[in-house]
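Researcher: If convenient, please comment on what follows.
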Amino acid sequence: MSTQSTTQKTPIVDKGLDAQTIKKLPGPPEFTEELRMRQETDRVLLESFLIYEPEHQATWFKDDVPLLGALDFEEKYQPFLERRGDWTYCALAIRHLSNDDAGNYMVNVRNKHGEKANHVRLSMKDENAPTRGGIEPTFFR
């Protein structure tokens, strides 16, 4: 089983200000980049970074249904929202990945100045499915 993702465009901050200036400005949450997927051994991380103060609150959804998670190793979903230097790291770990995890994921982040959402679609490819001919694409970094 492998994963594929598509990302819906989210406005990215580009105002020519340095991180020290931006992080001190009060304002609604703003993502510094689109929500992206990073696959690890037995889990996938959906992650991005936020700017602006004050502290943020995040709610994750799968197919418009709120996800619950905790800092418990046995939980399927584990959300992260923590300061990392000048930015706030926002992520969702999906453990023990299976075909049931395919769907549309959204994080809604809010603070007292407003809110912002970021989306990603997670789809699964069945490695046992018959091929239709041709060659599978290979991607390099």
